[in-house]
Amino acid sequence: MSRADEKPPRPPEKIRLADHRTSLVKVERRLLLRSALSLGALSMLAGCDLQDNDSVDKALWATSRWNDRVQALLFRGDKLAPTYAASQITNPFPFNAFYDQASAPDIDPADWRLEVSGMVADKRPWTLERLRALPQAAQITRHICIEGWSAIGQWSGVPLKLFLQAIGADLSARYVGFKCADRYYTSLDMPTALHPQTILALDFGKEPLPTEYGFPLKVRVPTKLGFKNPKHVAAIFVTNQNPGGYWEDQGYNWFSGI
Ligand SMILES: Nc1nc2c(c(=O)[nH]1)N[C@H]1C(S)=C(S)[C@@H](COP(=O)(O)O)O[C@H]1N2
Ligand SMILES: [Mo]
């Protein structure tokens, strides 16, 4: 790890001071050094020393974009996130957002539409009814938050690949971006968008997503950290320009996954 000796450029003040930063670089370091580990195994490691702060982490912070490339190289299209038994589901499931639970957006399902734009042939908005008419897939997977907790949940909904095909998306484009009802936003690389476990989740457990867990639609991406799983999604777009994300634009590693 010779890069640890280099003096990294200083990230903006507000990011250096954020509590999140230390846990971010820890996870990055593990993704880098232990890229063969599953995200599930990473979560076990993440619990132990998130409070530390050392020079290796500082150097890795500075090489975040380099890490993105390394992680992209390590990603294989056939790599699946671990799945679990129904008896392992975490109850109650933790809530997280950049606001408190009571402030989660209250969305009327009758008015809601999923907007579609960018490099796609069919830009008609989608109702919940039309989304539910598409084939659905279920998964019991582990959600891992960069803040150092993880939880197992069950989600089901439309595989994003199937949806992208349905709207005639240019699958050679580089990114799929998501905009949410609460001003949150994030984006995925196209290989992850096409990954078989990446779904437009409509149900949590056996019921429609509860308000605070992302009603009416959450993109569930078990190969990525929690912040790349947008809740209350209102718009999807396909683009060659990296759309970034709410946390990504404040310094979190954009790739953050396998
Ligand atoms: N719209 C929206 N999506 C979001 C967030 C948010 O604040 N707003 N927070 C992210 C983060 S950091 C986490 S850990 C998960 C939390 O999802 P949960 O409430 O189902 O546990 O949502 C992610 N998606
Ligand atoms: Mo998170």
TrEMBL record:
Domain Oxidoreductase molybdopterin-binding positions: 103-247
InterPro entries: OxRdtase_Mopterin-bd_dom (IPR000572), OxRdtase_Mopterin-bd_sf (IPR036374)
SUPFAM superfamilies documented for this protein: Oxidoreductase molybdopterin-binding domain
Gene3D superfamilies, sorted: Oxidoreductase, molybdopterin-binding domain
Stretches of the chain forming a coiled coil according to its record: none
Protein name, UniProt field: DMSO/TMAO reductase YedYZ molybdopterin-dependent catalytic subunit
